[in-house]
Amino acid sequence: MSNVHVVNHPLVQHKLTLMRRKDASTNSFRRLLNELSSLMAYEVTRDVAMQDIEIETPLETMTAKVIDGKKLVFVSILRAGNGILEGMLNVVPGARVGHIGLYRDPKTLTAVEYYFKMPQDMPSRDVVIVDPMLATGNSAIAAVERLKEMNPKSIKFVCLLTCPEGVAALQKAHPDVPIYTAAIDRELNDHGYILPGLGDAGDRIFGTQ
Ligand code: URA
User: With 90 as the cut, is the pLDDT of residue 140 above it?
Assistant: First the structure.
């Protein structure tokens, strides 16, 4: 699987295991997702462009490196993507945020768009799409397709969990988009859920089950 980055840092794996447990409360699920997302942000921004600026320390002037956070756009696939967004913004508070509303048609499992709002000047920006679960891949594929119409400098996809079917589908449709995930689980079931997985990410984040 080329272009797939499994973030297997012990802290990430530990938090993911705690989140998977069915007895994890909404409160702890959300907190763990927040912490884990900050760690994922660390990985996904590893190759972000830096620039030199001149600063003054208490002792002298120096040239030091900074990133231009404003050039990054985190795009949340509603609603579960918002659970990742917060943790990523803890690490890159200057990033811009876009939202794309897609719901899964329960019969066909295809993605239907109901909302789309992005920052101005997308051709100068690097996009990171976030959604906790890359399952059938339909939402991810639709989101990438829609964002490619806006011609950003680059697109990456970050999820918490995926499965071989989801990776294959997204890579087939968009081989140029790197995938960052904390784990690739065994399989997708007939209802489009990842096994063993963690259940419905949106319901677990928002306590709506
Ligand atoms: N979406 C979820 O929330 N969970 C899955 O297992 C698959 C898709």
Answer: yes
pLDDT(160) > 80: yes
pLDDT in tens, 31-64: 999 999 999 999 999 999 899 999 999 999 999 9
- What residues flank ligand 1, with Cβ below 6 Å? 133, 135, 192-194, 197, 200-202
Task: Specify the CATH number for the domain of residue 122.
Answer: 3.40.50.2020
Catalytic residue among 31, 68, 104, 146: 104
Domain total in the chain: 1
- Read off the pTM: 0.94
Q: How many other β-carbons are positioned within 10 Å of the β-carbon of residue 122?
A: 17
* C-alpha of residue 48 to centroid of ligand 1, in Å: 29
Of ligand 1's atoms, which has the minimum distance to the CA of residue 203? Answer: 3
Its domain, for residue 61, covers 4-206
